[in-house]
Amino acid sequence: MKKSPEFSLIQQYFHALTANREDVIVGIGDDCAVLNNPQDFYTAISIDTLVQGIHFFADVDPYRLGIKALAVNLSDLAAMGAEPAWFTLALTLPEINDEWLKQFSAGLADIAQQHRIQLVGGDTTRGPLTITIQVHGHLAKDNILQRNAAQTTDLICVTGCLGDAAAGLQYKLGQLDTAPLTDTDIEYLLQRLEMPTPRNQIGQQLVSKAHAAIDVSDGLLADLNHILHASNKGAKLNLSSLPFSPVLQKLPLKLATQLALTGGDDYELCFTAPAENVAKLKQQFPKMIRVIGEITQDKGMYFQNAQGEWQAFSKIKAGYDHFA
Amino acid sequence: MKKSPEFSLIQQYFHALTANREDVIVGIGDDCAVLNNPQDFYTAISIDTLVQGIHFFADVDPYRLGIKALAVNLSDLAAMGAEPAWFTLALTLPEINDEWLKQFSAGLADIAQQHRIQLVGGDTTRGPLTITIQVHGHLAKDNILQRNAAQTTDLICVTGCLGDAAAGLQYKLGQLDTAPLTDTDIEYLLQRLEMPTPRNQIGQQLVSKAHAAIDVSDGLLADLNHILHASNKGAKLNLSSLPFSPVLQKLPLKLATQLALTGGDDYELCFTAPAENVAKLKQQFPKMIRVIGEITQDKGMYFQNAQGEWQAFSKIKAGYDHFA
Questions:
Q1: B218 is in an annotated binding site
Q2: Are B4 and A35 in contact (CB < 8 Å)?
Q3: CATH number for the domain including B172?
Q4: Contacts of B13 in chain A (CB under 8 A)
Q5: Based on C-alpha coordinates, what's the Rg of chain B?
Q6: Domain PurM-like N-terminal spans what residues (chains A, B) (predicted)?
Q7: By the 8 A CB rule, do A120 and A133 touch?
Q8: Do A323 and B32 make contact, defined as CB atoms within 8 angstroms?
Q9: Is B91 contained in some domain?
Q10: Number of domains comprising chain A
Q11: Could you tell me how many helices (H) and strands (E) chain B has, helices first?
């Protein structure tokens, strides 16, 4: 019935993650970490929990899990346009498994190093495997990228490709017809599910070029709907512009479209920006930005059917609710 | 296999906790919270997880659990002398229990309001009951209260009373001889276990008056030992000075002493300071500060036995390890 203020486990396995930033005044090992915020910057923070059996399979590779645990949080910083700085880790473990901890911390270290984000605090407790990470980023005070500032005639864009992670999940659940796919294709889909790539570099550019942004974690329609709702706008989508990976293109078009629209777990960015800024972003990030529609004054989400008529999405799948 | 970026549950039950601080630029509901740090202050942060069955009993009153979940984190800010500002809540729940959530959030709201700390972010997931809270506080840059700055001849002090929570735990486990105690006494012990009082007001005064501080979560000896180890010092303790509540005084002295030294879960502060500053603190906080010993150049922890001789503690109980 006591907490442990000691970080022996974290010091042992996560040591490589706890050094190198000069803005960390007191790191792991005291009652609090003490952090030095740059002047004229806000702090952006986000906290996310991954629970075994809910957010990941029990047999997932722990190296990949280490990457994903930080990636989903970095993705929130990306959607806000914040520069990653520090994170904390609350790790609940059923047992001390040396090999698991080595692999998990190696994954965490690799993605942390890539994004120059430092582990500054943590807590380890015993219990069912649960990983909670909070990330902290710096955000220039004059540019905040929220969900509520989409403007009429903004182009709606997404980064990367959509639907791969959802296809990977269908494969894991035994629901994907793998006839058109090679083993390499399947491994690609699993990597997109198990090791998403947060788009922090693009996100930091969006603060000065986009009006609104969100990361695609619950499926494009659900997440775009958050922007529309917060901004009091509508959208016209061009479904033939959805960005599919070469692997997803091997699947039936209808399935690929459904996975891209409602699948989730992509951790790509969806943003709205004026056309001239989209052009600049496309130059800056070749092949990474796809225009998929336009913000409208009229509410609702519409797409063009095979006859060229605009149709309302009859059912926008609501954000995934873990308690639904 | 997806996370929920939505905070509908948090917005529904924790709404009262999410308002009122002007330094919250973006609160709950976007990808990140955006926070405005005061100039010339560091940010102190701490994260702690409470797991059902490890840190609290399944039958604990949810209102009290709400208080404790934040209290143990506020206590870390107190030990650092930081002023509470913001917190995040990652809540893993086996089910949506309306009555439980109402009670839990009411407890959380009451202690949050008391300490002017605002809920700025959160995540709700399904799984075994686990509560992770991260607190953020402001810390003037010229005063950081760490564990490593105890000076020889500093007086060793504690706030409040020690051992009550441990006695409450023994009662819950059916290990306490309750013959000397009334029902009111037992309720008092349970309250100390289930609703500890973080000492933030005193902690904020310590930054200018104490050399080193820690909160007593794992038992006085274990936590004082962290100060001694970090400061490279030793201590002489006067066991007859240990602060016992009137209820603990009804128990056999040997048991009360053992509970106070090794019991833990007190969430009082243990600090070291020069005698003149201790005198000032005693005036400022009457009856709340007790001198229990002195910092020594020679390492080790000693106490005076019945014959007046100094004896080493033969066994300093190490910090509670959830994996021991």
A1: yes
A2: no
A3: 3.90.650.10
A4: none
A5: 20
A6: 29-137
A7: no
A8: no
A9: yes
A10: 2
A11: 9, 13
How close A306 gets to chain B, by Cα (Å)?
Answer: 32
Q: Do B34 and A43 touch (CB under 8 A)?
A: yes
Cβ atoms of B90 and B3 closer than 8 Å:
no
Q: Is A255 exposed, middle or buried (0-12, 13-18, 19+ CB in 10 A)?
A: middle
Instruction: Tell how far CA B167 is from the center of its chain.
Output: 17
Q: Which residues of A are annotated binding-site positions?
A: 31, 46, 48, 55, 76, 122-123, 147, 215, 217-218, 265, 320
A114 and A201 share one domain = no
- Is B257 part of a structural domain of the chain? yes
β B310-312/B24-26 pair status: unpaired
- What is the distance of C-alpha B164 from the center of its chain? 13
What is the rounded distance in angstroms from the CA atom of residue B279 to the CA atom of residue A100?
52
| DSSP-H helix ranges across chain B | 8-13, 62-80, 98-114, 164-172, 183-194, 200-209, 220-231, 253-262, 275-284
Q: What is the Cα–Cα distance from B269 to B201, expressed in whole angstroms?
A: 11
Give percent helix, percent strand, percent coil of chain B, each to the nearest 5.
35, 25, 35
Is residue B322 included in any domain, yes or no?
no
B4 is in an annotated binding site: no
**A29: domain CATH number?**
3.30.1330.10
Chain A and chain B share a number of CB contacts under 8 A equal to 261
Instruction: Judge contact between A41 and B43, C-beta under 8 A.
Output: no
The rounded Cα B199 to chain-centroid distance in angstroms is 8
Would residue B98 count as lying in a domain?
yes
On whether B265 is known to bind a ligand per the annotation, the reply is yes
Q: What is the pLDDT of residues A162-182, one digit of tens each?
A: 999 999 999 999 999 999 999
Whether residue A37 and residue B42 make contact (CB cut-off 8 A), yes or no, is yes
Q: Residues of A marked as binding for ATP?
A: 122-123, 147, 217
B30 among the known binding-site residues? no
Which residue in B6, B57, B95 is closest to A319 by CB distance?
B6
Q: What is the mean pLDDT of chain B?
A: 91
Q: How many beta carbons lie within 10 A of that of residue B213, not counting itself?
A: 30
Q: Identify which of B48, B130, B134 has the shortest CB distance to residue A3.
A: B48
Kindly report which listed range (A58-62, A234-238, B24-28, B67-71) carries the lowest average pLDDT score: B24-28
The partner residue sitting opposite B147, judged by closest CB among A30, A322, A323, is A30
- Closest listed residue to residue A44, CA positions, set A8, A73, A7: A73
Q: Do A37 and B43 touch (CB under 8 A)?
A: yes
Question: Quick check: helix, strand or coil at residue A8?
Answer: helix
Give the SS3 label for residue B145: coil
φ/ψ of A287, rounded to 5, equals: 70, 0
Residue of B nearest to A96 (CA): B323
Q: Cα(A288)–Cα(A78) distance, rounded to whole angstroms?
A: 15
Host domain of residue B18: 8-140
CA–CA distance, B139 with A35 (Å, rounded to integer):
9
Query: Per-residue pLDDT tens for A218-269?
Result: 999 999 999 999 999 999 999 999 999 999 999 999 999 999 999 989 999 9
CB contact under 8 A, A80 and B32: yes
| CA proximity to A49, closest of B56, B265, B10, B323 | B10
To the nearest whole angstrom, how far is the Cα of A167 from the nearest Cα of chain B?
12
Residue A225 distance to chain B (closest CA, Å):
12
Provide the pLDDT for residue A203.
97
B183 assigned ligand-binding residue:
no
